[in-house]
Amino acid sequence: MSYTALYRQYRPKTFDEIAGQPHIVNILKNSVKAGRVAHAYLFTGTRGTGKTSMAHILSRAINCLSPVGGNPCNSCEICLGILSGGIMDILEIDAASNNSVDNVRDLRDEVLYSPSQTRYKVYIIDEVHMLSTGAFNALLKTLEEPPEHVKFILATTEPHKLPATILSRCQRFDFHRISAADTISRLEQVSGFCGAEAEPKALRLIAAKSDGSLRDAISILDQCLSSGVKTVTYADVLSTIGIVDYIFLGQVAEAVMKRDPSLIFELVEKLVMSGKDIQNFVSDMILYFRNLLLFKISKDPSDMIAATEEALHDIRKISEGFEKDEITAAIRVLSELEPMLRWAVQPRIMLEVSLVRLCEGIAGDASVVLSERISLLERKLSAFSSISKMPNPEGAHKAKKPETDGRGFPPENNNASSSTVDLQPNALKTAEAKEISAPAKTSGLKESPRSGIAGRSTADLQKAWHEVILTLKERGKRALSSILQTAKVTRLDEKIVCIAFNNETSGKIASDPANINIIEELISEKSGGQVKIKITLAEMSDADDSCSAAVVDEVLHKVETLSAEHNFPFEVFDE
User: Fold this and answer.
1) Cα–Cα distance measured from residue 390 to residue 557, given in angstroms and rounded to the nearest whole number
2) Domain-by-domain residue ranges, the chain?
3) Model confidence over 144-193: pLDDT tens digits?
């Protein structure tokens, strides 16, 4: 005798055996008991939720010779004949392969004949959305006013593809996805019928991977039992369906949290060498980050996550190291990667690049640009420091331009004996030049009496700002730290620092009162004086304009001070 799949062997035979659809079971049972059975039903829902099984049970219940509480008895002549397929009055039609107008015309002619053995002739049309437009039109009138001895049961996974005229002529029932608890309960019953056992965490894993489809869950269990084992273990399920466990997913998430790209490459190597499918792994990672997000925003998300107690504990612990913005960013990056893998020639490389991108953070590219800008500013400050050491140029009537390196900046080994300097207002309007300021303390100058970060050089400001960002990272404020890396910091006056963003969302996040307090506290601590911050939410160009006037005035004032104390003239040329 040929083997029959488990989901077919243990298909429900009564309404009470249907899992996860009590809202439909109660209505249909009461309809059968009251004799108020409609002429047409429409069952909709995702795969494996019991649509076809419910249709078969209903077809027997309305024809059963001795129904029990609305359920078919499954022991009378009619029930046994329907179960064995010997009664031809119950017809199941696959609309995917019988979707033409001619097929529906044949059906329309057949419904005129009375049933041979049963009370009602029942037509079960599966995947009814596959019918052509002409076939729907041909079925329409018959479906609206069929003979009294005919009942129609339509089943589909895509009800939106059905014409409104068809929908309006049926009683519609929407089948829900089967919950993890109901799936596990049914799997335990099936395992008992087969004389086998299954570990609780193995059943929870099967329930999680079935995604609400009981048929898929029983098929996975059937596949595990095919190896001949009497006890299905967690490892058996992992090897059967080819997925990675929560421990490995947690290791990848921790590598992202710790910003460790080298560990990412090691884990991807392990994933590929174990033969796991990269696209399935990305889907699992998206689900894993979703679970991390649940722990960040929900007090008790255990019921929404189909995982073992150990896995739930690990997920909770890892979630504490992430900010919500980081988790949502990771989900967004991986979701963009998932469809691209279908056509990728090198899916492994694409996975590695995406995970490394997560390690660097969303503002990774901005941090590189910021470092380059700081380096250029340090060179400019070095050039201005040399001005204070210049001798008095007698007979100098007009300032001359210093030599440049071709990019508008002083060369690396600028001659300190240069006697004149030209400041261009146009250059001062650029993002870099606006941050230039002469050091507060140089050779031959008295120390500035002003306190706070505004009384120091731009180098001190950038150094303090860099320390603020590092401190935020150490305190676990990685999201805020990443946002601040994209900001432009400038001095307005002695006690106020302007922080400008080129992204309005980032500016609003930084403007949160709690974040403002943290930033002011840290920047005051690192600078050695009390300061307040001003956050500009406009585009970077507008933000620069709001901060530029005070900066330009301060630069010119310092150069005038240097000129007066060292007795060298200067003029500002506007070219």
Assistant:
1) 18
2) 6-174, 180-241, 246-360, 422-566
3) 888 899 999 999 999 999 999 999 999 999 999 998 889 999 999 999 88
